[in-house]
Amino acid sequence: MERLQKVMAHAGVASRRSAEKMITAGHVKVNGKTVTELGTKVSKHDHILVDEMPIQTEMPVYILMNKPRQVVSTVSDDKHRKTVIDLLDDEIKERVYPVGRLDYDTTGLLLLTNDGALANQLTHPKYEVDKSYVAKVQGIPTNDELKRLRHGVSIDGKLTSPARTKLMSSDEGRKTAIVSITIHEGKNHQIKKMLQAVGHPVMKLKRETYAFLTLKGVQPGDFRELNPEEVKELKRVAKLDN
């Protein structure tokens, strides 16, 4: 059994604090009866309506996946390509969704969950959750070009927020380099567009970290569930109301 406001928050209806206000204001029904008591507890078998709309009450699941190339970060795909949900097989019974996306040819750390409130906080630019990437690029970026990325570059008519960048290695013979870049935004194809803007098209791209989480021990195509301490810390990073 879980407190009603906690279940609502996990379902992505609202933050826990906002859910409490909705309950006391009479917006919530459990099994057909309006509930205004904050101490009310419910199970996954209870039918919950918020403003006459049903919500999902399954227990929250938090998954860290190492996404391989040629897999789409969606629940389904009209082109019949393999999705990250296909990689879960039958091990995860709950219906989960990717938190943000990684491009078809981008690899690395992807979170999946059915906790809508947390997913919303993590993907909202307001909360500035860091994500770090390693890119193999054409050409060798100069200090000035890396400095431009640190100060923000214009993509799609808008200036990106400052990034943290580092030239990790370079190959003079092949005219390629490996660059580390950390951002807290999540615009479409952002890393690729940023590096393109300074004259270095991306050849390969991998997300290595998401907040404090890393890919340690998780091979490409594999996944693991986050432990309770990791979930707690992720909610703290996302400034999710408790």
Please tag this protein with its features.
3 domains; rRNA pseudouridine synthase activity; 242 residues; alpha+beta; EC 5.4.99.-; elongated; four-stranded antiparallel beta sheet; Alpha-Beta Plaits; Structural Genomics Hypothetical 15.5 Kd Protein In mrcA-pckA Intergenic Region, Chain A; nine-stranded mixed beta sheet; PsdUridine_synth_cat_dom_sf
Distance between the termini: 17 Å
Quaternary state of the chains: single chain
Q: Class of the largest domain in CATH? A: Alpha Beta
User: What is the level-2 CATH architecture name of the largest domain?
Assistant: 2-Layer Sandwich
Structural description of this entry:
Belongs to the pseudouridine synthase RsuA family. Its EC number is 5.4.99.-. Residues 2-64 form the RNA-binding S4 domain. The chain is of the alpha+beta class. It folds into three domains: 2-54, RNA-binding S4 domain (Structural Genomics Hypothetical 15.5 Kd Protein In mrcA-pckA Intergenic Region, Chain A, Roll); 62-125 and 213-237, Alpha-Beta Plaits; 130-210, Alpha-Beta Plaits, CATH 3.30.70. 21% of the residues lie in helices and 29% in strands. The protein has helices at 4-10, 16-24, 116-123, 143-151, 190-197, 228-237; strands at 2-3, 28-30, 33-34, 41-42, 48-50, 53-54, 62-67, 97-98, 107-113, 131-138, 154-155, 158-159, 164-171, 176-183, 202-210, 213-214, 223-225. Strands 7, 8, 9, 10, 13, 14, 15, 16 and 17 form a nine-stranded mixed sheet that branches. Strand 8 (97-98) and strand 9 (107-113) form a beta hairpin.
